[in-house]
Specification:
Layout (H helix, E strand, L loop, with lengths): L2 E2 L5 E2 L5 E3 L3 E2 L6 E2 L4 E2 L3 E2 L5 E6 L2 E6 L3 E3 L1
Antiparallel strand pairs: 1-2, 3-6, 3-10, 4-5, 7-8, 8-9
Length: 69
């Protein structure tokens, strides 16, 4: 199973990615700004999602909003 970012680059455990779009955080009034760096990602069972720590909070992010850093 290959997990790919919005540009088609293959993502691996431990990679760093950057947000390509401002995202609203569900259940919160916070926004994640475009250009936010997410380091040391972990892959999930889904090809369309990764786990990463953003501002000390563990989140699941869709790969269509990410690019490899």
């Amino acid at each position: 199973m290959d997990v790919k970012d919005s540009n088609g680059n293959i993502l691996k455990e431990g990679d760093s990615v950057t947000l390509i779009k401002d995202l609203k955080v569900r259940g919160s009034s916070n926004m994640l700004k475009r250009g936010t760096l997410v380091k040391n990602i972990r892959l999930t069972d889904s090809e369309e999602e990764i786990e990463g720590r953003v501002e000390k909070v563990q989140m699941v992010l869709k790969t269509c909003f990410l690019k490899k850093a």
